[in-house]
Structure formats: structure tokens, C-alpha cells
Specification:
Layout lengths: L1 H11 L10 H17 L17 E2 L9 E5 L3 E4 L2 E5 L19 H20 L8 E6 L5 H13 L4 E4 L2 E2 L2
Parallel strand pairs: 1-7, 2-5, 5-6
Antiparallel strand pairs: 2-3, 3-4
């Protein structure tokens, strides 16, 4: 008897009892898509300041270009992640300063000149590459202006006259 009641029930039910609810899944995918688009960076340049360095804040919206990277922290100056000069609390040792020109940092100039030479050699052999004398300067915001002035002066003497300063966005 129980079997006949079950058979009547099976005959009365509709053929499509299970419907997929995709509305919430679509909402989830839209949220995921928005998150990924907001976190996606179109800039080919990766600037990673060291843990000990704090970059100044700015409202600039321009993306950096891929050029020579010059980093000045409280304890050293780096060119393309290679340590070039030691600093003591943001102060240059007198052995690194030229005696005739107190704004000129000899050790930094030597490294920048080598980098410029490499770039010019590549530019002479490859028509698509051009040496434009651009450099991105990452500097701790607590460094004295006098040091940054010396670094920029020396980089200009080495052929890097277009100095861009890396900053953090205020957003």
C-alpha cells in the first residue's frame, strides 16, 4: 500500500524540480572581478623600497617608467640594487666627496658612468634602444636636502639629467 502512495506522488511531481540559482554566483564573480581589476597594476616597473626606508607621500598619478633605479637610504646609496656608497645616518663620508667640488660624489659617479656606458653601447648596437639619461630616485623622506642635492648633481654629471623622484600615493 505504501508503495502505491509513493507511485502516485512520483506521478504528480513536475519533471524539473531542481533549478540552479545563479544570481548569487554571478554576484560573487562580479565582486571578484572588481577586486582583481582594482589590484591589477599595468605598470611594468616594480619599485620596492627597503624596509628601513620611508618614501615621501604625493598625489602624483603618473606611472613610473623603466629606467635606471637609484636608491638613497640612511645607511647607503644603491644603483640598480648594488651598494655603491656607505652613509652614516644620511651623511656622506668625506673620502667619497671630491676635494675640488664638494657637491660631487666620486664613487657614485663612477658607477653611474659605467651604467651610462653600458646603455650607450646597447643603444649604438640596437636602433630601437635609446639612451635618454633618465633615472628614478628613491630616497628616504627624512634625508637632508643637501645629500639629495649632491646625488642629483652627481647623476647629472654622469649623463643622467632627467631625475624622477619615486613617491608613495596618499590614497
Amino acid at each position: 500500500m505504501a508503495r502505491r502512495g509513493f507511485k502516485k506522488y512520483m506521478d504528480k511531481r513536475s519533471p524539473a524540480t531542481f533549478k540552479i540559482q545563479v544570481t548569487s554566483m554571478v554576484d560573487m564573480f562580479v565582486i571578484l572581478l572588481v577586486f582583481l581589476l582594482k589590484s591589477y597594476s599595468t605598470s611594468p616597473v616594480q619599485l620596492t623600497p627597503s624596509d628601513k626606508m620611508t618614501l615621501p607621500a604625493s598625489t602624483s598619478t603618473k606611472d613610473p617608467v623603466d629606467v635606471l633605479k637609484l636608491m638613497v637610504s640612511k645607511d647607503a646609496i644603491y644603483v640598480e640594487d648594488k651598494k655603491v656608497m656607505d652613509l652614516k645616518g644620511g651623511i656622506v663620508d668625506m673620502k667619497d666627496v671630491d676635494a675640488n667640488d664638494t657637491q660631487f660624489l666620486r664613487t657614485l659617479y663612477t658607477e653611474l658612468d659605467q651604467q651610462a656606458g653600458k646603455s650607450r653601447t646597447i643603444a649604438s648596437k640596437n636602433e630601437e634602444v635609446e639612451f635618454d639619461g633618465k633615472v628614478i630616485l628613491q630616497a628616504d623622506r627624512s634625508l637632508p636636502y643637501e645629500l639629495l642635492k649632491k646625488v642629483m648633481y652627481t647623476s647629472m654629471m654622469a649623463g643622467y639629467s632627467d631625475v624622477k623622484i619615486a613617491v608613495l600615493s596618499k590614497d
